[in-house]
Design brief:
Structural class: mainly alpha
Radius of gyration: 27 Å
Order of helices and strands: HHHHHHEE
Strand order of the largest sheet: 1-2
Helix content: 40-55%
Number of strands: 2
Strand content: 5-15%
Distance between the termini: 48 Å
Oligomer: single chain
Amino acid sequence: MKERIRVILEKEKLTAKQFAALTDMQVSNVSHLLSGRSNPSLDSTQKILSAFPNLNPEWLLFGKLPMYKHEKLVQYDLFGQPIENEPNFAISETSAPVSTPISEVKPSVNQQIVHDVVVKEVVKEMPAKKIQRIVVYYSDNTFEEFSTK
């Protein structure tokens, strides 16, 4: 929990003395919490939550994200890019109604031609990529490397 208290200090841009004043705790008590010398009591935890009402209690107690109640949990893909929950495409007005099964939807000839041209253009723009090497890193600081031959 001491690391989460440090995060609060960083995010809120507070010193230990300011944090102690906001939470109505002794400066020495905050110092002991930050050094790991003592663990927070129920009383000090309640004081922290009272001083920071937007703080997520589950985050403070257990480290479960998100830190603030109003924050959404952001998920990241394999490459560290945030995953958008919103689709990155628009549904056209000419799309089939939801009640119609996909197998019964038949595009017009013009729609089919446009679709084929777009798909061929996208395929032309994509360079051919081949996997050369995969590296797996383990939590014990070891790794395995796999390469194509």
